[in-house]
Amino acid sequence: MNFFERLQALDRRWIYIVVALAIIIPLMVPYNSDVVTTPPTENLYQLIDSYSDRPDRAILISFYHDAATMPELYPMEIAILRHCFERKIKVFTMTFIAAGAPIIDYAINTVKEEYPEIQSGVDYCNFGYKIMPMITALGMGDNIATAIDTDAEGRKLANLPIMQGIVNYNEMNLIIETSGSVAGGTWITYARSKFGANVAVGVTAVMAADEYPFLQSGQLIGMLTGLKGAAEYEKLVDVFAAYRDDYFPKGRPFSKEILRDKSINKLINITTQTQAVFSPQEYQSFLSKYPEQKAILDKIKTDQDGKVAFDVTKISAQAQKDLGDKVWNALNKKTYNILYKFKTARIGMNAQSIAHIMIFAFILIGNIGYFVTRAKDKKAAGR
Amino acid sequence: MKKNIPLAIVIIGGFIWVLWAFVPHKILSEDFINKFYLPWIYVQAPFGVILGVMSLVMMHTAKIQRKAPKWQYSFFTLGGLLITCIAGFGWGTQNGTPMLWMFTNMQMPMSSTMFALLAFYIASAAYKAFRARSPEATVLLIAALVVMLAQVPLGLKISRHLPDISQWILDVPNNAAKRGILLGIGLGSVATSLKILLGIERSYLGGGE
Prior knowledge:
The structure holds two protein chains of two kinds.
Chain A: H1 3-8, H2 12-28, H3 39-49, E1 58-64, H4 70-86, E2 90-95, H5 101-112, E3 124-129, H6 133-142, H7 144-148, E4 174-179, H8 185-195, E5 198-203, H9 208-217, E6 222-225, H10 226-241, H11 256-260, E7 275-278, H12 280-289, H13 294-300, E8 302-304, E9 307-311, H14 317-334, H15 344-382
Parallel strand pairs in A: 1-2, 1-4, 2-3, 4-5, 5-6
Antiparallel strand pairs in A: 7-9, 8-9
Helix pairs in contact in A: 2-15, 3-10, 4-5, 4-10, 6-8, 10-15
Chain B: H1 4-22, H2 26-66, H3 72-91, H4 98-129, H5 135-150, H6 153-158, H7 162-197
Helix pairs in contact in B: 2-3, 5-7
């Protein structure tokens, strides 16, 4: 048996080992990589962002999946919820399958930990598990409070502060369905065609091809495609919604120019960041906000190529205490370190990159072996 | 009588929905849905759950009694049903409850593991079966490789044109095929629905007709 015949007969367990390593190593050792955002993701981001600080607008996220497809869909849900909480956008959640109910709780609790000021019934509301998608979708076109009646905590929807200014699809004008199978069908058929609601979907990568006809026809205003879609959305949230400076204290608006700018690289690093670096002007501006902590800050600062730097891991517990929570949080914010839960899709994309290259190599090697063996067989038959 | 009454219910019910779709009148669009159809649907759903639970229990109990192949697994199914019911009814499903703990620490990792096995099967199938045996297979192979590479950041480093080519494949040939399939499904559904509404198609009534 020659080399190529051996390749053809390679035990599949070797393939499994290589794939496992190709996935596990990038997950354990993250590296910085960039995902290019695509129009379907950008369109969805921009529409959600346009509802910022508007009491008469809300979005609905329909969790139409169980735990099996969570690795791809859950980061999307986390990124969208984070966007809504950052930009004060009213958000409703619901599911039409019982197994989706705990995922909603898990997702909301995960994001809410970072936003203590966000309140259930005021900033967001979980409708929980509801039956009969068609009937619920139609009912909400008339009156959401009537069709849903009570939320997951058993509270009468009509009495909740979040419902002020929200009646039907005229206000809750965007529905995003995340699903591991066909997504958005109910909403396109009933909420969009009859009431004009905007519909978007987040789907696993294998299902994306099925959704393209609806995207191209405009029935879907946006789509998040698998882990890549989630990674793109995470990036947009970091660059725009979660961005804070003196000019944009509540996040900045979407801009293609900013996305092309190299300066955003420091905002999207997925490796752990510990350095808060200020230009001399920025440092003066920072000090002017916290004049009482000037002495401590001056004491712990270090010089880095003419810039003022703080390594947050090297600041003692006593110094942290002296700085106070507000200044300490501001310093941490300046490191642009992204919490693990807000970058899982991008870390996953690293693994996916290697896995795709690996599969590419497998196909290539398999085909080389196939053609060489075939040529050899033909030659032998001709003799 | 046994056939005519169900047939009449289906035809009348079906035509009400056809009218609802095409006639935007208050009686149909609001009163029918909210005051009549919605309450009935909500009454119907719990019976579906009861039926489902009964069916599951009866099937697995019978399997254990008969010692059917792999009957031992039925204990896990019934045990899982019992435990989740107790956890759900006893403490609810909110954060910090046994239900959410079981979901986070048992269901989530187990389900994700099952789904993740796909990666191994795809890689193995790609190596063993994805061959350029014919011109059609070669086109499929090239399209798959381009779309796959364009999906990941490394693909962009190979060529900056890859995402555009991949998008063209998805927008043009993929959409053409998908639209054809969707139109076929749509026309088939309309034809079958019309046959049911007009009483031509009656196989759903049973009896082998």
